[in-house]
Amino acid sequence: MLQREVKDTRVGLVTVSDVEVSSDLKYATVYVQAPGDEAEKAETLKGLTSAAGFLRSRLGRELRIRRAPELRFVLDRTQERAARIHQLLAEVKGEEGEPGGGDEG
Q: What pLDDT score was predicted for residue 103?
């Protein structure tokens, strides 16, 4: 639906990475990954938020449920955090390989 039916130009290549639905099925948090810098990601979220009512309606019809959950879109930063951890580990490993173990004192 995101790629074929949402016409908002702010919503480009978006990957849905996870969805958490509340126990009462009233709310759904949709975790998304979007390309670009922080400004572009913010615009993507604005576009998704703008399309939330349309998407909710379409989901209700597709799933044949009386009341579809309210959609809340959140950026999934898992890959960014993993890259940062990888970078930090590489830096630590590089320091260990230096003469003296990187600990002068």
A: 53
